[in-house]
Amino acid sequence: MMTLAEQINTLGQQAKLAAKQMRLVTQLQKQQALWYLAELIEQNADYLKAENQKDLLLAEQNGLEPALLDRLKLSDKSINTMVDGVKQIARLDDSIGSLSATRIMPNGIKIAKMTIPLGVIGIIYESRPNVTIDAAALCLKASNAVILRGGSEAFNSNKALADLIQKALLFANIPEHAVQIVPTTDRAAVGHLVTMNNYVDVVIPRGGKSLLQRLANESKVPLIMHLDGNCHMYIDESANDDMAIKLAVHAKSYRYGICGAMETLLVHQSKAAKLLPILAQQLTEKRVEIRACEQALPYIENAQKATESDWETEFLAPILAIRVVDSIDDAISHIEKYSSGHTESIITENMQAAEKFQTQVDSASVYVNLPTVFADGYEYGLGAEIGISTNRLHARGPVAVEGLTTYKWVLTGHGQTRD
Fold first, then answer.
1. What number is the average pLDDT over the span 213-217?
2. Mean pLDDT of all residues in the chain?
3. How, if at all, do strands 103-104 and 110-117 pair?
4. How many helices (H) and strands (E) are present in the chain, helices listed first?
5. At what angle do helices 155-171 and 130-141 cross, to 10 degrees?
6. Quick one: which of 364, 406, 365, 402 has its CA closest to 383?
């Protein structure tokens, strides 16, 4: 009987070999696997929901938070989204092996960059079983091998999805160890995975602050971090009132448990008296709790006074912090101080204000006249994403196929030597 450390080590060895074998897998094989995977998910929707129901019942018994229950659930809509995401990935151009523009040096040497896979990727995530499919499909498209460690609360769902992935790999004659799932809920498995720098090239974590902090302290493997989404919307003085109300309500209430949900609404002081009572009424009808600054409180019935921690918090719940600001500069300063660098939006009819906001706000995604909930690889036309990276290196924003590649320099000569 292997120890846990030996089990995870074996996964790493198998992934390393599979990553080498993936260099020989053709574009056609990858497309065949992805199209078949989409077909399998559609055909097995009832089976997937039944396995997911086991996880949901156990999670409810264990008191899992509503936002995490929402992320855990496989509904018809989320299954269809998975299918559409896999199909989009299948349709994407395959950049593996492609060359950049070639430079010809004075001595005749030709220099270019070739797109190549990252290698072996470890992905650690909580709650969302759809990440199992998104991650497997994206890593496959980019010719990587991947080790997936989903949350214990989604164990049955992830196992069912992994079975479908294996069938798709077999169908296209792709190495079975190109996609592996850690077969245990033991949290110690994560500690072993993130220290295997002899086998794993990069780790992508998706989870709460405690998980991310743990990995930042323990990992010997480079991390592409998916941090929390403390997202902001700013209603500018020139905003269209109807649009501002519609988008603000949608940005908060579309889904409370996603990282792109708006957590703080900033409103220009000239709009406060007119818009805040209407916004408050519509949000209250959706049972959203409002925590407001002193300037906003007079316009909002039953609001709590906001505290400093409210500006810093990703609620992932029907809670919204509202602050009245005197100018766009004040809004930008607030975002700079409290944002997690995920996604911010301005609602404005003034294109100079829009340009200023997009130029000066330093987050992974910055929108004009859109709700923050568009922070999703599917909505960016990327098919799906493994996470929203708030890193500056190596990838930023939705991490899709391009974010799972790197490059090597390729030089071609005809016998030149250095002077």
1. 88
2. 94
3. antiparallel
4. 14, 16
5. 30
6. 402
